[in-house]
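Thread: NUDIX domain-containing protein, structure

OP (GT): Posting the sequence first so everyone is looking at the same thing. Length is 181 residues per the record. Can we get the structure tokens written out before standup tomorrow? I want them in the notebook alongside the other entries.
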Amino acid sequence: MTLHDDARRVLTGWVAPDDAQARLRDGYLAHLDAYPDGMWKARREGHLTASALIVDPVGGRALLTLHPKVGLWLQTGGHCEPGDATLAAAALREAVEEGGIDDLELLPEPVCLDRHEVKCGGPDLASVHFDVEYVAVAAPDAQAAISEESLDLRWFPFDALPDKTDDAVRTLVARAAKLLG
């Protein structure tokens, strides 16, 4: 099974939490139908990405990274790579690389989808990220380590996220907190 096949399988089987998320899922599937290379950064019309919100449910907190290109606090994540066997594996790889925590437990299903425009090919090369968002659970005593892909890395209480984030991250954190209850 290819990564493209896995993405179709995951999205087809995913139960969206609301109508807006169901429409996004349908758009992601249409993108994959239109572009056999729709998983890869080289596809300028857009490509799937995988992210993971790292959480400590015991402490009621989320680990966010200050993204150097957009200047916002975001969940860990990024582009799929040829070595990624599944979307979940890509999300977990990104979480470990960017959060510096090796023993994360990735929840098996995505929590949200978020489609956004980015300049991942340079300032004049806009593209679309079709982000598939997972949750990765860390131990309460997990020690994060900042990577070269981030300006900063910090734990934030679920109910006290930084001002410099966006509504998509706030939605992801709220859904993760509710899920982990």
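GT: Both are above now. Quick notes for whoever picks this up: The beta strands are 47-56, 61-66, 73-74, 76-79, 105-106, 112-118, 127-137, 152-157. The domain at 3-180 is CATH 3.90.79.10 (Nucleoside Triphosphate Pyrophosphohydrolase).
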